[in-house]
Amino acid sequence: MARYGTQFGPDITFHEVPRCDWADPGTFAGADVVVLGAPFDGGTSYRAGTRFGPQHIRQASYSRAGGARPSLALRVDALRDLAVFDAGDVEAFSGDAERMVHDLRHAVHALAAAGVVPVILGGDHTIAWPDIAGVAQHYGQGRVAVVHFDAHADTGDVEFGSLIGHGQPMRRLIESGAARGDRFVQLGLRGYGPPPDTLEWMARHGIRAYEMTEIGARGLDECLGEALAIAADGCDGVFLSVDIDACDPAFAPGTGTPEPGGFTSRELLDAVRRVGYELPVVGMDVVEVAPPYDHAEITSFLANRVVLEALSGIARRRADARDGSRWDPRQPLLDDRRRDG
Amino acid sequence: MARYGTQFGPDITFHEVPRCDWADPGTFAGADVVVLGAPFDGGTSYRAGTRFGPQHIRQASYSRAGGARPSLALRVDALRDLAVFDAGDVEAFSGDAERMVHDLRHAVHALAAAGVVPVILGGDHTIAWPDIAGVAQHYGQGRVAVVHFDAHADTGDVEFGSLIGHGQPMRRLIESGAARGDRFVQLGLRGYGPPPDTLEWMARHGIRAYEMTEIGARGLDECLGEALAIAADGCDGVFLSVDIDACDPAFAPGTGTPEPGGFTSRELLDAVRRVGYELPVVGMDVVEVAPPYDHAEITSFLANRVVLEALSGIARRRADARDGSRWDPRQPLLDDRRRDG
Amino acid sequence: MARYGTQFGPDITFHEVPRCDWADPGTFAGADVVVLGAPFDGGTSYRAGTRFGPQHIRQASYSRAGGARPSLALRVDALRDLAVFDAGDVEAFSGDAERMVHDLRHAVHALAAAGVVPVILGGDHTIAWPDIAGVAQHYGQGRVAVVHFDAHADTGDVEFGSLIGHGQPMRRLIESGAARGDRFVQLGLRGYGPPPDTLEWMARHGIRAYEMTEIGARGLDECLGEALAIAADGCDGVFLSVDIDACDPAFAPGTGTPEPGGFTSRELLDAVRRVGYELPVVGMDVVEVAPPYDHAEITSFLANRVVLEALSGIARRRADARDGSRWDPRQPLLDDRRRDG
Amino acid sequence: MARYGTQFGPDITFHEVPRCDWADPGTFAGADVVVLGAPFDGGTSYRAGTRFGPQHIRQASYSRAGGARPSLALRVDALRDLAVFDAGDVEAFSGDAERMVHDLRHAVHALAAAGVVPVILGGDHTIAWPDIAGVAQHYGQGRVAVVHFDAHADTGDVEFGSLIGHGQPMRRLIESGAARGDRFVQLGLRGYGPPPDTLEWMARHGIRAYEMTEIGARGLDECLGEALAIAADGCDGVFLSVDIDACDPAFAPGTGTPEPGGFTSRELLDAVRRVGYELPVVGMDVVEVAPPYDHAEITSFLANRVVLEALSGIARRRADARDGSRWDPRQPLLDDRRRDG
Amino acid sequence: MARYGTQFGPDITFHEVPRCDWADPGTFAGADVVVLGAPFDGGTSYRAGTRFGPQHIRQASYSRAGGARPSLALRVDALRDLAVFDAGDVEAFSGDAERMVHDLRHAVHALAAAGVVPVILGGDHTIAWPDIAGVAQHYGQGRVAVVHFDAHADTGDVEFGSLIGHGQPMRRLIESGAARGDRFVQLGLRGYGPPPDTLEWMARHGIRAYEMTEIGARGLDECLGEALAIAADGCDGVFLSVDIDACDPAFAPGTGTPEPGGFTSRELLDAVRRVGYELPVVGMDVVEVAPPYDHAEITSFLANRVVLEALSGIARRRADARDGSRWDPRQPLLDDRRRDG
Amino acid sequence: MARYGTQFGPDITFHEVPRCDWADPGTFAGADVVVLGAPFDGGTSYRAGTRFGPQHIRQASYSRAGGARPSLALRVDALRDLAVFDAGDVEAFSGDAERMVHDLRHAVHALAAAGVVPVILGGDHTIAWPDIAGVAQHYGQGRVAVVHFDAHADTGDVEFGSLIGHGQPMRRLIESGAARGDRFVQLGLRGYGPPPDTLEWMARHGIRAYEMTEIGARGLDECLGEALAIAADGCDGVFLSVDIDACDPAFAPGTGTPEPGGFTSRELLDAVRRVGYELPVVGMDVVEVAPPYDHAEITSFLANRVVLEALSGIARRRADARDGSRWDPRQPLLDDRRRDG
Predict the structure, then answer these.
(1) How far is CA E120 from CA E97, E106, E127, E134, in A?
(2) Closest by Cβ to F162, choosing from A43, A96, A164
């Protein structure tokens, strides 16, 4: 097996799920989901450190290896109800963004083509370009909608003399046709950028961006419902891209470009759960976790839970599709019907 | 006096209240409340460090020693309106959980038997077993309801080959009859455990557990009101057990098993205030503060305030009982009637 | 030019706006706003470190120098729409509070007299005395209302044997007549002080203090609307004083006297935005940022955004006054009318 | 295979050497060395956290997994020249020191009996009792000399009411006859303890303790030479016990009971190298690495190097025994004879 | 008793020695040494935080309160062999350096006049002026030599417009005649200051300053011997002033103005031990410990040991004077003669 | 002026020396030295973060801007005795190592060609390739000897699929002929790499590498003298490349690949001083300072002093060449002859 393993540190897997090699579908036969690390931080415009994201997100757990991990919110155990593998990292030399984009896209496409949901652990947000493009390469250009949680629009054009970087992936995706602007929803934007010409480019391409002031004034539930409807409209699948800086720096200090005024961790987890449960997710990434700036691993724990909660949503969605039940967030945890049902 | 003092660091007391010896009731004659430290972290399943909890909770103050500490929320000064003493720590060798459980239960029972409200500063949550069992030993098996704030149910059976540990105290209490499952309410549960068989055990014993998704969907006020009604129903007293990880790691990073998606500090303080004011509290513990993982002491400050706010609630409850007034959270701080009343 | 420069570290300016010398109005001709640093922490009663506040607040940015910084919330670029200069620091020897108070008041008055809005970066809250007194010296005693966000009332009388200190500036201002008590609104108070006699003094002078319990019970929007109406009633201008500890320690750990149970960063930013937009702000300070206690610069970033968001409010207020438009927080970010309008 | 794995975090091995099960010698057939983790901190008298020592020592590496790791000092590659396996951790519930002592001794004895050198990664120094007793159980009571680097003598009698603890293992070993006092050498002692009666007990048993003042006055080379001669005198093997706090806190801040005035890391590495090269090492432990108190992992890196350098010494000793060469520390790194020899 | 207590945190004493009131000699009758805290950081020219020095130096201990603390180096137990009390802190408002200088000098003089050795815990180095002036006020102007360990000369004239500050105390002492320049020895100077005119002033007053390059080239033993001879020449007593930044930042990161290239902790402890043992110490201070910049308390531990080791030197000096013995640093720790002698 | 400024943070200069533009020699007419930042960390094989090195090294100072900075060791004020400018940073996108190598080499060559000594602040050690190649481009291939302080040889061939990276610059330099292997001396190597084939390549090219064991056994003075003689033999100039990890992690924790057992800061500063004073330095870089892993800025301070001390050596060398004097490290700081001479 040509598995690359983990680029930094020992070769571990997400919550100790089985290893596989993305280049060899036989190693993940029957998989629903394959986790892939992209330990790249060469594209960040400020603080580096996300290269350690995959390692820290994988191991952010206080439970013993191999045990049950039932979601109390959704009453499923995603790592058991779904067949999840971990393909290790793609080799990602931070000094060569172009090679990384090429190699990561190739790996993600291979996974999508094999019918699994790739879950990519970043790495800086540069990786969203190969992540989503790799999925679109399989499902068709413009066939995959994008739900994007972030403090930043990431729709810049050229930065530091490069078309590649963590501030520009969404532009590359829409320009190349991999994703459609009018099926691109963004939640959590705030702060003091992008500049007017970039906002105009975004408007021209029909992106729907929910800035935090609008979310505050209208309520997250209403905005999220609207956003999910846009994403679900006529697409073959949805890619969920979660920049951990969508959350306020209080909840996610371990990141490169922190912007005050963000979501609480509860809001983000609730939203991600809904995306997993309500939409046909065909790929996902979690990015911008920079462990050197974290404290007590709280950002890595949050990112780990973002993955688990999205997977739990997917698992519950599939379970409900099988048995016709419906998840009710108001149901008490120990209510009999849950275990009977 | 045989006072043991503080196990780590100099012999200080909670906000410099007078010292006493739990084994000698004469040293705390007339007391309403006695603080007791349980610097034990041998029962934690992950990060240690709570042994320094008692010291840090006691000294988390930016005010000069000996001054007034009036609660702005409740308009009482708990450390003056109540007679509060500090009995120092019980000797708690972290390498011998069994001895600690025995010795702490003995000390807590002595305090309860002397008619005071014991307030135990942990320490990991292992101590809830001796804390509540010690109180129940005085009031009667099953006569004390439990209000439990926590990210975790703490109802495991055997972990690391032991019946004792910070993941199991609630099971020991209910199994032994010290506490009744149907007068046991839990708020703040979330994440990826306990496993199904434990949840079944909990349901079977009638525990009412409020998971964060339910709290989010129904609102904390409604859930808390319901929970307090259950606790108040036919019991002789209530024990309040606050695991600081009920709060989100953003507010309480200094803890051993952080679980994202928790309460804000305001929610916890508001809830604790209500418990102190609305229920007949006969004992309390604050646990899982792990100073080595804290930043800028914010977790220790929060735990200190949890104690102060519960005591303020108790003090206001007693004052209102005396003069028939009633606390109104909407009343402006500088409203004349307060100081006239 | 007699510009003093920055007291600590290299001579930088807030977001690289042009330098000026407060003592030479010719250096800031045409200015709307002048930033001034007050790197003083000799008045703090607990943790020091705010002397590094001005430096860290000035440089808390992940954007390249000189670029656009459009407020996504308000659709203005305050640093371009307003003429903003940075006068460097006043010399502030922390060992001589009396001299600092004198010198800072002189500098602030000079700026106010020159018709600009002084924005003072603290430093501990001691500086609010010279800040507001300096402005009042120009506008007239009692002619400037004060909107004060803080966990603490800062209305103490004598502390550590001194009339000067970060717990007493508001008393000095009201006693001296610089500010009127009945046009002094405070939001965010909580915790265990001040003592009763100080509360009585506050009530006697007609201060309106919104404690967090009242804000929680009534809602921040309602309380803030009421507070702004008080401040706007018959005054010639408003001074906005933001103690960063108004926010919960989770959002602002880098401060000297953290009090759990505070605002979220979103609440503070929303409130500051409203003050800038709805009231005639004639001066502002941001205080109590203590970088040695910060983590990953999140407190400095928040303070930086508090300034930017207040300035954005002022800029939008002026723009709307010119063209008769009105800011709608519910308007989508990419809505055409914004860019057309 | 009944391998327990790692108690905390994912199941990794020391520099990714192959896994084995200590209870099944077939899994480490042909081994020279087996690494074993003892993640126990229930015996520490002050700061806890060494339970994470095994995990952090194992992964403290900036090299890719699986590559060469040649010692530049000794010109061997210990992990290739020796057959090294990693048996994972023994289950070590910190709340039950007695059980841990029993279980760890059993495991260490099994390894010694299988003819390998056990290398135990602590954990607090409590583990030296089972570590050395386990080895002595195989080689014979009093047949194994001990070379002990430490700031503390660890010869206390009863602490916190217990005979077990990190301040007492050496007493238990000598009292029980497992080790002989007059073949027990200690280097690095300093500070303000143990008390006089303990010193008398030590003298009575013939321990040779080198306090830092003596080492400073006489020179480390001379003292170490003398110490090694004592240890080598008539014993069947030597156990090397390295408490990381032998080093000054500047070099090893991540420890529980730091005592200023210790060795530099170079001194410790030089000394450990000599022990490995000059004495017949039959077992080794490295203890008191407390990652929560570490900074930038420097203590874990040091402990990792202590193990590697001891193993390199052993490897070079064996190589020289085979070919009659002799290591010369003055030889230039790139000298031809090295690669020719 | 009018004891002021500790200014920050609970009222603790150095290693729990008995409390006293410096203004009431009856409270420290029979004392050899009285510890006094000076929690002042208003005089520092860069990082603040030394106000927490007294608290942290007092409690930097991992031993249980009240136990023996025998110096292994000197074979005395200073806290038992000498009568040591702790007078708490002087009130030291950091915003009023002038008042602090006055009040501290008054307190130190009172202690010296009562015949005890004052040991002042800083606080920034500003306090050396009142410390040494207070002692000189009793012994006579110019009658007390000064041995000064520091990275900096602290002989500046005016800084930040003030004669008082942590860069100027030595100038004030020599200018005022309290200390003689030609009995003033400095060890550890290095770096890039003071400027030439200040060096000339120092030379003119006959100060003997040992810069680290000289110490490196000649050896610390030789330089220290020479320095002690100068200090001992014709003086009635010696004041030992230890700025913790004499040590390299690796050993003392918790300080305000760190200068690389300093002493190791062993060198400083060895030197301080010699001063205490070889010279007639009549006063001592330890300054510039800034806990907010410390890591794992290593700087506080070092400062605590500096005090203990100086006291141990004094105790051994007195013991040897009584019985005619002589300390030999080469004597093995467990050598029989020590305990017999 | 086309000055790029600083890539991260405000546009500051090293100790506030004047700005210049490397592309416009008129902006640094008469310069002796030009500082240039290379904020690149895309080539690091482990921890990133050195992109913030230039900013932190520039501002690591506790002195006021613009003041004297006389070297106490060398009795010169390098920033006044030499004409020093700061050209800001080269644009260094970490995601494109190839472009950075090209652009940096171009800038360094321009400076060398203009007759100044370029001092490059890294960034990771990748930059040594363009730094030295740029200088050699002016002085001639193989005409510049290299003195290299480092824990690592940095002579790898291909890593992460790239010829460029921080583990390979010295190989690229020697392979390309820019530097001669037999005029390449390395001091400080240690640890567990490079692998044998790389060592053979190094030996074949005649590199003289001093491993720490050799340095320990023979003494640093002797080894350094020998190394400087090799470097001085028949070359036109010397390039000094200082990887901060040459120092032990205790002194330089803020780095990417820390290796225990290194130099003390005094040893490194002494050695750098000698290089500057004894050899004809024509260029210099200081690399691998990674501020996110630093504590209390001690690594940045050290790197700042490495630059200052090398410049001081150069300045003293030039002064002595003019007046025929000779620096004596044994001379007392305040000796009259210094100021007279």
Answers:
(1) 17, 13, 9, 11
(2) A96
Per-residue pLDDT at E219 exceeds 60: yes
Q: Note the pLDDT of residue D3.
A: 82
Q: Which chains touch D (3 or more CB pairs under 8 A)?
A: A, B, E, F
Amino acid at site A78:
A
**Whole-angstrom Cα distance, residue A190 to residue C69?**
11
Q: What is the mean pLDDT of residues C249-255?
A: 98
Q: Would residue E122 be called left, alpha or beta, if left means φ above 0 and alpha means ψ between -120 and 50 degrees? A: beta
Looking at C16-125, list the stretches that DSSP marks H as alpha helix, in order from N- to C-terminal side.
Answer: 53-59, 78-81, 97-113
pLDDT at E224: 98
CA A193 to chain centre: 22
pLDDT of residue C67: 77
DSSP 8-state code for residue B297: T
> Which two three-digit tokens encode residue F93?
């996108």
Burial of C65 (0-12, 13-18, 19+ CB in 10 A): middle
Q: Do C162 and E96 touch (CB under 8 A)?
A: yes
Residue D4 pLDDT: 84
Give C95's contacts in chain E (Cβ within 8 Å): 42-43, 94-98, 126, 160, 162, 164-165
CB E62 within 8 A of CB D45: yes
**B182 neighbors A298 (Cβ within 8 angstroms):** no
Q: Residue E90 and residue E34: Cα distance in Å, rounded?
A: 13
As beta bridge partners, residue D147 has: D185, D240
| CA of residue F207 relative to chain centroid, distance | 19
Once rounded to an integer, what is the mean pLDDT over residues F118-130? 98
Q: What angle is formed at CA F153 by the lines to CA F150 and CA F155, rounded to 5 degrees?
A: 140
Spatial separation of the C-alpha atoms in residues F100 and F89, rounded to whole Å = 11
E284, containing H or E segment: strand E281-287
Q: Which residue of E has its CA nearest to D293?
A: E296
- Nearest 10 degrees: CA dihedral of F1, F2, F6, F11? 20
Tell me what pLDDT residue A336 has.
Answer: 58
Q: Does B331 touch chain A (CB under 8 A)?
A: no
Contact yes or no, A with E (3+ CB pairs under 8 Å): no
The number of beta carbons lying within 10 Å of the beta carbon of residue F221 is: 13
Binned at pLDDT 50, 70 and 90, residue B340 comes out as very low
What lies within 8 Å, CB to CB, of C219 at 6+ separation is none
- Give the count of Cβ contacts less than 8 A between chain B and E: 30
Residues 174-213 of A with CB under 8 A from C: 189-196, 199-200, 202-203, 207-213
**Mean pLDDT calculated for residue range D12-23:** 96
Model pTM score: 0.98
Asked if residues B16 and B65 have their Cβ atoms less than 8 Å apart, the reply is: yes
Confidence label for C340 from pLDDT (cuts 50, 70 and 90): very low
Q: Note the pLDDT of residue C1.
A: 46
**What's the token pair of residue A26?**
């036989």
- Ramachandran bin of A60, using left for φ above 0, alpha for ψ from -120 to 50, beta for the remaining angles: beta
- Mean pLDDT of all residues belonging to chain E: 96
| pLDDT exceeds cutoff 70 at A198 | yes
To test the contact with chain E by mutation, choose from F266, F269, F312, F338 the residue with the greatest count of E C-beta atoms within 10 A, namely: F266
Helix (H) or strand (E) holding E185: strand E184-189
Evaluated on CA atoms E127, E130, E135, E136, the torsion sign reads positive
Q: Is the peptide bond before C291 cis (omega within 30 degrees of 0)?
A: no
Q: Which chains touch C (3 or more CB pairs under 8 A)?
A: A, B, E, F
pLDDT band at E336 (very low <50, low <70, confident <90, very high): low
Mean pLDDT of D306-330: 97
Average pLDDT score, chain B: 96
Token pair, residue A146, equals: 């994008």
